[in-house]
Write a structure and sequence with these properties.
Number of strands: 0
Oligomer: single chain
Number of helices: 4
C-alpha cells in the first residue's frame, strides 16, 4: 500500500466515524456538537477570512460552499480522491 492509499483510507475512516457519531447522537435525541460540523466550526474564523477576499470568477462563493458543507462529506470526498490517485501512482 502506498502513502496515498493509507492517507485516503484514514480520511474515509474519519469521515465514517464522524457520520456514525452524528447518527448515534441523533438516535439518542441529544443535541450535541457532532450535529452538522463544518470547517467554520472546527477552524478559527481568522484563518478563513481569505475566502471573502477571493474575487476570481465566483471562487469566493465556491470556497464558502465547501467550507460550509458537512465535515464528514469533505473527509469522505478527499479520502476517495486520494484512494483514486493512489491507483494511478506507481510505487
Amino acid at each position: 500500500m502506498s502513502k496515498w492509499s493509507i492517507t485516503g483510507g484514514l480520511f474515509c475512516i474519519a469521515g465514517l466515524l464522524l457520520l456514525g457519531f452524528q447518527a448515534l447522537s441523533s438516535l439518542t435525541g441529544q443535541e450535541g456538537q457532532w450535529k452538522s460540523l463544518c470547517l467554520y466550526d472546527v477552524v478559527n474564523p481568522e484563518h478563513l477570512e481569505w475566502i471573502d477576499k477571493l474575487s476570481w470568477l465566483g471562487m469566493d462563493r465556491a470556497a464558502d460552499y465547501i467550507a460550509a458543507s458537512p465535515l464528514y462529506v469533505l473527509l469522505l470526498i478527499v479520502g476517495g480522491i486520494l484512494v483514486i490517485i493512489s491507483g494511478f501512482i506507481k510505487n
